[in-house]
C-alpha cells in the first residue's frame, strides 16, 4: 500500500514535468514562427548568392569557383546543401531553406539543454527566456536575409559545444570528440570565420583535444584544399566588398573603398587567437562570443543578420557560463546590434522616422556603438572574472551525485 501511494506523487511529478517541457518548447516554436511570419513578406535578400554559387560549383567553375568568383564569401558546404534541394525548383528550394533555417533556432537551444541546470523548472524557464531573445535576430538571418552558410556554421558550432560539454562530463562515447572536430570542420567549410570557434577544444584534456583538433584540421584541409590549390583562388581573400561607414573597419580609421588585402586574414588569425585566450582562462563557453566580436570589429560591412551569430554566441555564454535566469548578455547584444529595415532603402531618409531614421542618419555613431560592444564582449570573456559559476559544471555535479528525487 505504501509503495502504491508513493507512486502517485512520483507519476504526478513526471506528468507535470512532461507537460512543462511540452509547453516550453511549444512556446519557443510559436514565438519563432511568429517572427518568421513577420519577416516573410520581404525576405530572401541574399539568397541569390547560394543558388548562383551552387550552379557554378556543379557546373562551369568546379574547383575554380573561388578563383572565378571571389565575391562568393561562402564555404563549399553551403553550396552543396543548397544543391541538394535544386531538383525541387527555385521556389520550393527557397521556402525549404527558410523553413529549415528557422527551425534551427529551437534546435540550437535543444542542443544546449543537456548542459544546463538539472533542476527542470529552472532549466525550462532559462530556455524559454533564451528563445524569446533569440527569435527576432535569428529570423533576420533565416528568413529576411537567408544566409544559409551562417546558419550552418552556427548550428555546427553549437553541436560541437554540446559534444565538448558531454565529453567533459564523461557522458559521451569514444566518438564524441571526433564528432566535435567534424562539426567544427563543417562550420569552417560553411563559413571560413568559424575557424575562431576551434579553441573550444582547448577545454578538453590534452589527448582528447589533440584528437578533436586533428579531425577538425584534416577534415577542413580535405574540404578546402582542392579549391585553394587552384591558381588565383587566394583572390577570395581580397573580395570586392565595399566598406560601410557603420562598419568596424571604418571606425578603426580605414578609409578605402573596399576591404583591405589584410582584412580577411586579420579576421581568420585574430579570432582564434582571442578564442585561445578565452579557453586557456577556463572560459571556453565564451569562445564563440569573442570570435564573433573580432569578426565584427574587423568586418567591412555592418549588416542586420550579423546580430544573429552574436546573439547565439552570447546565449552560449549566458546559459553555460553563468547561472543567471535572464540571459542579460544576449539581451544586451540583441538591443545594441538591432538594425531597422527600410522597405525602400534608397529613400530611407525620407520614409523612415523615429529611432529608425536616427539610425540611418548616424551610421558613424552606430559603428562606434558596435565596436564598443565588441570590445566589451572581449573584456567580458577574456579579462573580467567569471560571475555566478558555470551552469554546465553545476549540472554535471548534480548528474554525478546520487539523488533520491523522482524523475525530471
What features would you describe in this structure?
There is one protein chain. The protein is mainly α and 408 residues long. It is 66% helix and 0% strand. The chain has 18 helices and no strands. Helix 5 runs parallel beside helix 7. It is globular and about 65 Å long. The two termini are 24 Å apart. The relative contact order is 0.12. The C terminus is likely disordered.
* Cα separation of the termini: 24 Å
Radius of gyration: 22 Å
Contiguous low-pLDDT stretches (5 residues minimum) are 399-408
Task: Report the order of strands and helices.
Answer: HHHHHHHHHHHHHHHHHH
What's the helix and strand layout?
Blueprint: H1 2-39, H2 49-57, H3 65-68, H4 76-84, H5 90-112, H6 120-145, H7 148-168, H8 176-190, H9 206-228, H10 248-251, H11 263-280, H12 287-297, H13 306-321, H14 328-336, H15 348-351, H16 354-361, H17 363-383, H18 391-400
Helix pairs in contact: 1-5, 1-6, 2-4, 5-6, 5-7, 6-13, 7-8, 8-9, 11-12, 12-13, 12-17, 13-14
Task: Tag the structure with descriptive keywords.
408 residues, mainly alpha, 18 helices, 66% helix
What's the quick description here?
With 408 residues, the protein is mainly alpha-helical.
